[in-house]
Design goal:
alpha+beta; five-stranded mixed sheet; 9 helices; about 20% helix; globular
């Protein structure tokens, strides 16, 4: 980890250090979707589907005729080992305000002030980056596979191609392309999700685009009583929704319900709550338990190991390590608009 110090030296210091603003990493913290822990290298995900056929009543013995079909499929999901790590050279801080908090002695060059006010920001920065990858990113291999498939529109292909190259596939990518054995056509290929074409969203058309998403979703999802459906949308939509709700003129119409403010604010469309995440050019409407993150331990995201380097080196290493994968189930009940 290179310490980048900019500025002069030996000047009087402003007491406060103005820190970076980090985006909220709510997926793992608030568990807005299904977070499953306890996996290091892989996991088996099971899905079941039962179909029944009505027939005329009979007093005869029951025979096997396939009118009740019990289906179970298993899909192995490989987790990817990822890490954030680097080396800290504390000697860069000599001659700065941080030198004051270094203990006496040539071997002591760790600044307690630097650790408390700067190094402490590594954890929220990791949280922000992980949140970004959960909702926007694809591996190099998946990008190649999506580009070569014939089952996706050019716009969806372009969306995946434009995503940052990641160590694992994000949730929107899984909703478009995966290798689940529970699909109509099992194995690697286009997902069974409901795919809708949208346009670039602005404050002028955001209500119309949400209407397409809502109307295009399976009625089983919208009318579910076992779980509440959710819309997962880009962070920027929060601003566009409020601009649309507060438009001036004859066309003014309140299309979204906004309740509360700040951390307790809730926004919904036609009774469906909206969750905002760092997504780009896609929206998803489904039951939240169908979107999954598989982990070794959710606490790994905030755990940092900081220690001295070996062999007398006067430097420290910092490391965070995780095992992670995203997955989707019940794909025919996931609606994605792009």
């Amino acid at each position: 980890m290179a310490i980048n110090y900019a500025g002069g030296k030996k000047n009087p210091d402003l007491e406060a250090i103005q820190s970076e603003l980090y985006a909220d990493s709510k997926t793992l913290r608030d568990r807005v979707i299904d977070i499953q822990e306890g996996f290091k290298s892989g996991a088996d995900v099971y899905e079941s589907k039962v179909s029944v056929t009505m027939k005329a009543g009979s007093t005869d013995a029951v025979t096997s005729d396939g009118s009740i079909n019990l289906g179970v499929q298993k899909s192995p999901v490989a987790l990817k080992s990822i890490e954030y790590s680097d080396v800290i050279d504390d000697a860069v801080l000599f001659g700065t305000r941080f030198e004051k908090s270094m203990a006496a002695g040539a071997f002591n060059q760790v600044s307690s002030e630097f650790d408390k006010k700067v190094l402490i920001q590594v954890a929220p920065a990791i949280g922000e980056d992980l949140e970004n990858h959960l909702w926007n990113g694809a591996t190099s291999a998946t990008k190649v596979a999506v580009a070569a498939t014939t089952g996706l529109t050019a716009s969806f292909k372009a969306t995946v191609a434009a995503m940052p190259t990641s160590e694992f596939d994000s949730i929107p990518v899984r909703a478009l392309w995966n290798d689940s054995n529970s699909k109509t056509v099992a194995g690697a290929g286009v997902a069974d999700s409901v795919k809708l074409t949208g346009i670039t969203i602005t404050s002028a058309n955001i209500a119309a685009e949400y209407s397409k998403l809502y109307a295009g979703a399976p009625d089983k999802v919208i009318n579910s009583t076992s779980s509440e459906p959710r819309i997962f949308a880009p962070l920027a939509h929060r601003q566009l929704i409020k601009i649309a709700n507060n438009s001036v003129g004859a066309a003014q119409q309140i299309n979204f319900l906004v309740e509360g403010s700040g951390a307790s604010e809730k926004i919904s469309y036609n009774g469906v709550a909206i969750e905002f995440h760092p997504m780009v050019n896609v929206m998803i409407l489904t039951l939240p338990e169908y979107l999954k993150v598989l982990l070794d331990l959710s606490g790994d995201a905030s755990y940092l190991e900081v220690d001295k380097m070996a062999n007398g080196a006067q430097k420290r290493y910092i490391k965070n390590k995780q095992s992670i994968a995203t997955w989707v189930t019940n794909q025919r009940y996931i609606t994605i608009q792009g």
